[in-house]
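Hi R.,

Here's the chain you asked about this morning:
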Amino acid sequence: MTDGKSENRKDATCKDRTWIEAGMAEIARTGVEGVRVEVLAKNLGVTKGGFYRRFKDRAALLDGMLQNWSTGRIAAIEKQTSLDGATARERLRALVALYSERMNTEGMAVELAIRQWARSDEAAAAAVASVDAARLQNVGQLYRAAGLAAEEADAQAFLFYCFIFGQSLLFLERGPRKRAQLIARSAEKLLEDEG
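And the predicted structure, written out as tokens:
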């Protein structure tokens, strides 16, 4: 049995998440400038008062969005790079497939919008830096587990992420089959045994 206070906290967190998710959808569509209380309230079909019962102001919502994004991205890469019985190369192949076989246009739009925001905002820049560091560290560990020396593994992890994000932006007009073939050939270069 739960007490009333924990139920209220759970309900508040759920309602906070609703606003954060609405903010993430809006940042994907219009960038951080479009994340405005009145726009989100309209999109959610509620009054602005509902927002102010959850957040002090727009800045608090933006902080919540950054926290949600960075925590989610870091948890995702930690899960995606966990070996769980797979080899490091199998896990790297799975990551390539995850990010290249199915285009997540909204996820990429959020990523790009947050990176654009980070160009002019210290908090957003710090969130992006922490996510990038976690991504590079975890993928670098996979390359180390595959036998690369530390510096080579770090360089390969950097190339890996350049590929992951770059492939999502390029060659969309080639058609799915040709694009998939190009991605597969390119990914193999990232997964070749060194020496």
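The chain is about 75% helix and 0% strand.

Let me know if you need anything else.
M.
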